[in-house]
């Protein structure tokens, strides 16, 4: 095996900072150093890796495409080191600290509110932070170390450094204005759906195409309540989880189950997992029966 490059975690932190910040000055501020110290540290990183990481666009230094592999590695190392530091501090101080959780809206408001309430009651000294949003941004925040775990729709792509465990499946049904029979799939729509880059939209589009239905989308929204109201107003058809479509003041009338989606717990691989994270994972996994056999605990 060849000699490994002598990389410092601080240099990798600099690389993540310049990739995420809008300017080098802000990146330097984010990591608490001067712009010149940031530039010097990154030049040293480039030298130690032995691959050019930056190019020029006018007077600006920008990341080269070849830097993506190094950047992915840097994100994992920085986030895992942060996990280790957090675990060590908690072990040293016997302090519950904090936990940062991301959830899609239906998980936070429908599937797990009682589990979340019970968990917070059992950990009164724990600083609990909940971020509700679409699956993809939550997974990106998790990969960057900005969340400790996420409950989201199973991703179709691989997120480096992220492992998932299946929780349960949700039924996705077709809803049309005023309900009624669907007729020939070629006449279905037009549609009001989740945004094109969402995991659920991909599942829906693939299922509609498999049925021979045109996917003519006239409006989109990440909020199921908005899509439900669009259908009530006669603006188009939609596909939603049955829990969200058939609740509230103006529930929709289901026509047919189109597909299913799997909700998962996502967490960073090989992290020094916080005991509070393990406890919350266990509580969430205990809510529903496992998919395809025995449940595997979060490691």
Keywords for this structure?
11 helices; two-stranded antiparallel ribbon; D-Maltodextrin-Binding Protein, domain 2; 3 domains; 6-stranded mixed β-sheet; Arc Repressor Mutant, subunit A; 10 strands; alpha/beta; globular; disordered C terminus
The proportion of residues in beta strands is 15-25%
Please work out how many helical segments DSSP would assign.
11
Overall CATH class of the largest domain: Alpha Beta
State the total count of DSSP E strands: 10
Outline the low-pLDDT stretches: 291-299
- Radius of gyration, in angstroms, nearest whole number: 23 Å
Q: What do the pLDDT scores average to?
A: 85
Major sheet: arrangement of strands: 4-3-5-10-6-9
What is the end-to-end distance?
A: 30 Å
Order of helices and strands: HHHEEHEHHEHEEEHEHEHEH
**CATH homolog superfamily of the largest domain:** Periplasmic binding protein-like II
Predict the CATH topology of the largest domain.
D-Maltodextrin-Binding Protein, domain 2
Provide the helix percentage: 40-55%
Based on Cα principal axes, name the global outline. Answer: globular
What can be said about the biggest beta sheet? 6 strands, mixed
Domain module tally: 3
Structural class: alpha/beta
| Architecture per CATH nomenclature, i.e. the level-2 architecture of the largest domain | 3-Layer(aba) Sandwich
């Amino acid at each position: 095996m060849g000699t490994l490059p002598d990389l410092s975690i601080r240099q990798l932190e600099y690389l993540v900072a310049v990739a995420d910040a809008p300017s080098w000055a802000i990146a330097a501020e984010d990591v608490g150093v001067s712009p010149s110290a940031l530039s010097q540290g990154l030049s040293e990183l480039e030298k130690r890796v032995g691959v050019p990481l930056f190019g020029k666009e006018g007077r600006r230094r920008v990341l080269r495409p070849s830097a993506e592999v190094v950047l992915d590695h840097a994100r994992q190392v920085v986030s895992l080191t942060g996990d280790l530091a957090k675990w060590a501090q908690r072990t040293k101080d016997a302090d519950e600290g904090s936990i940062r959780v991301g959830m899609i809206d239906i998980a936070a408001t429908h599937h797990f509110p009682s589990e979340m309430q019970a968990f917070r009651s059992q950990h009164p000294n724990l600083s609990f932070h909940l971020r509700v949003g679409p699956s993809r941004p939550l997974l990106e925040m998790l990969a960057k170390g900005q969340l400790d775990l996420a409950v989201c729709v199973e991703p179709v792509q691989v997120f480096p450094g992220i492992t998932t465990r299946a929780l349960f499946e949700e039924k996705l049904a077709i809803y049309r204005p005023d309900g009624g029979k669907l007729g020939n799939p070629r006449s279905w729509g037009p549609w009001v759906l989740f945004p094109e880059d969402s995991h659920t939209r991909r599942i829906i589009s693939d299922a509609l195409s498999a049925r021979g239905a045109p996917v003519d989308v006239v409006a989109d929204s990440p909020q199921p309540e908005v899509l439900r109201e669009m259908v009530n107003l006669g603006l188009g058809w939609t596909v939603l989880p049955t829990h969200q479509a058939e609740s509230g003041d103006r529930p929709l009338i289901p026509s047919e189950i189109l597909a299913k989606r799997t909700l998962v717990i996502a967490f960073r691989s090989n992290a020094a997992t916080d005991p509070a994270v393990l406890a919350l994972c266990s509580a969430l996994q205990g809510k529903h029966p496992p998919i395809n056999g025995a449940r595997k605990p979060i490691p």
